[in-house]
Specification:
35 strands; about 600 residues; 4-stranded antiparallel β-sheet; 14 helices; alpha+beta; disordered N terminus; 4-stranded mixed β-sheet
């Protein structure tokens, strides 16, 4: 007994000595260890980590081809390992490889060392597959490798309904597809075949027969939709072009639902519904004495193809009346009644009138521009630009040729004359107490306008612009007669405004300029343009606030002297107008 124990102890000791010897002689990975077909024995831990990273990169970049087998019509799909979401758990694989020959069980560890003397020691890869990427690949590959089944349907010829019965298609087994794809990646790219399977339709013949009967019922008579005393009739021939089916997979087998296609409804019958539609109308204001009332907004009504399509199919297949009110959708105005009331427009803040002679072409332009400006709303903090409101003045917009100032002379310009509207608006801004951003007085003083309180406009410049620096909105109202134009601002402004005009200073006499007209006699003279004095003027705008405080703002204006231009047969002893310094910009008087 003691002898057996002695020999057993000796054997164990020898094993321990062998294991210690192997471990001392074999640093790093146990010789003969193979991972994914790659010999990694003898590598240090860091070298093994790098090698596993290389293996992962090779597998993720490997190109594979999956082919559907056994159907007579070859279909294939290409991808790479990354598309399948293939990754290696490097840390777990490294730990498993380094553990061979280092197990806590000495017998197992020694066994690995002995085995490594005679054959390879295989360590399996720990893989980490990205489930989302794999699902996306299976869906794409499955679609590419599948001839989908023919679902049940109907065919409408005229108003005759014919059945289209379902038939199977050809697909691939998803489990086999996944397994084969991963194996191809592990082999670092190859072509694999996946067995074909039947792709069964979700519907059956009974579902088709049922939807055929419903379609026949739908086409039995016209459908009539009504709104506000108007009606639209959809004849069976028209309805036939709109019918479609939809698979409803809530049961097994799936049902077929008869529908009206919203897209076809919009494309083919959109114009038919136009008389029943209406545009929304924004809220606005109406002048009432010195105040204003809010004119409520009105909702519009437009046909919603989705909603109307559902309504038509209900009327066509419900078994009751085939006449119903058109149910579509309302469209709210962009500027609602609530928006208008929130602006706090309460009373007339300012109003100004200028006068003109009757019936000249410029008056037509003034009236056209006033119509465009009328009912403009400027919200608190917003900037008003007259050029932006009016846009380009063209004959297409109803403007005509009328006098304007260009290079110091009166010329004809389309839209000429609307500076009278600009001047009238300038004074409404001025006496409303609002802050000017941009304005320009005429280069020459025009007597029909308040001196120092007038403005010219042209496109693209000069412009007339101000900011609504009050807490209330501004509603602009225009009124004109044959001989006057009035611009009124309605809002709320707790400030009184007065105007004081100074004396004219730096007065300049007009020069005389001569133009040659050989048709005139020696002593004849024709006055082309009467001259005007030039001068400087200062206008004060005085604000008086509710607490009695006052503030003064000065407006400085320089008017150039307008030359007197005459025609004579000989101008040799007269000033040559080419040398004079005068405004070059085009102005609207």
């Amino acid at each position: 007994m003691r002898k057996g124990l002695r020999w057993g102890g000796i054997g164990l000791g020898v094993c321990v000595l062998l294991l210690v010897g192997f471990r001392l002689a074999r640093g790093g990975v146990l010789p003969g260890v193979v991972v994914a077909g790659v010999e990694v024995g003898g590598l240090s831990e860091s070298e093994l980590e790098d090698r596993l990273g290389q293996i992962e990169n090779e597998m993720r970049s490997s190109s594979i081809v999956v082919r559907r087998a056994g159907t007579g019509s070859e279909k294939s799909f290409s991808a790479n390992g990354a598309d399948l979401g293939y990754e290696i758990d490097v840390e777990a694989t490294l730990e498993a490889a380094m553990d061979r020959g280092r197990q806590s069980n000495p017998a197992a560890a020694l066994s690995d060392h002995v085995l490594a003397l005679f054959r390879e020691v295989t360590v399996e890869l720990y893989e980490d597959i990205d489930g989302r990427a794999m699902s996306a690949w299976l869906a794409d590959a499955g679609e590419a490798l599948t001839d989908p089944p023919q679902e049940g349907d109907i065919r409408v010829v005229g108003t005759d309904v014919e059945p289209v019965y379902p038939s199977p298609g050809i697909g691939v087994d998803q489990y086999a597809l996944r397994t084969s794809g991963l194996e191809a990646v592990r082999q670092r790219g190859e072509t694999v075949e996946v067995p074909a399977v039947d792709a069964l339709p979700r519907t059956d013949d009974d579902a088709v027969d049922l939807v055929v009967r419903r379609a026949q019922d739908a086409l039995a008579a016209p459908i009539v939709l009504e709104r506000d005393g108007l009606e639209v009739t959809i004849e069976p021939e028209q309805l036939a072009t709109l019918l479609d089916t939809k698979v409803v997979a809530s049961s097994e087998p799936a049902r077929l639902r008869l529908i009206v296609s919203p897209k076809r409804l919009h494309a083919e019958l959109g114009d038919v519904f136009a008389p029943l539609e209406s545009e929304p109308e924004d809220a606005t204001f109406a002048v009432a004495g010195d105040g204003v009332d809010v004119v409520p907004s009105e909702s519009g009504f437009v046909v919603d193809p989705q909603r109307t399509a559902r309504q038509i199919i209900v009327l066509a297949t419900g078994g009751g009346t085939r006449v119903g009110p058109l149910r579509s959708k309302k469209v709210e105005a962009e500027f609602t009644t609530e928006d208008a009331r929130a602006l706090g427009v309460r009373e007339q803040v300012s109003s100004f009138t200028t006068y003109h002679a009757c019936c000249e072409p410029r008056v037509e332009n003034i009236h056209r521009a006033a119509d465009v400006l009328d009912r403009t709303i400027v919200e608190p903090g917003d900037t008003f630009s007259l050029n932006e409101v009016l846009g380009p003045r063209t004959t297409e917009k109803g403007y005509v040729g009328a006098p304007a100032i260009s290079d110091g002379e009166f010329v004809e310009q389309v839209g000429g004359g609307i500076s009278q509207l600009a001047t009238t608006t300038f004074n409404a801004i001025f006496f409303g107490g609002y802050d000017f951003i941009e304005y320009k007085a005429h280069s020459y003083y025009i007597s029909r306008y308040p001196v120092g309180r007038e403005a010219t406009v042209s496109t693209p410049a000069p412009d007339l612009a101000f900011i609504n620096d009050s807490d209330a909105g501004i509603f602009i109202d225009t009124y004109y007669s044959d001989t006057s134009i009035t611009v009124s601002f309605y809002g709320f402004q707790e400030v009184e405004v007065e105007s004081f005009t100074g004396e004219r200073t730096n007065v300049e006499k007009p020069e005389e300029e001569c133009e040659v007209n050989k048709d005139l006699g020696r002593d004849e003279e024709v006055v082309i343009q009467e001259g005007l004095e030039g001068f400087d003027i200062v206008v004060e705008r005085v604000f008086t606030y509710p607490d009695g405080d006052t503030e003064t703002e000065e407006f400085h204006t320089h008017y150039a002297a307008m030359p007197r231009i005459v025609e004579r047969s000989d101008c040799s002893d007269r000033n040559d107008r080419a040398g004079r310094d005068e405004p070059k910009d085009e102005e609207d008087p």
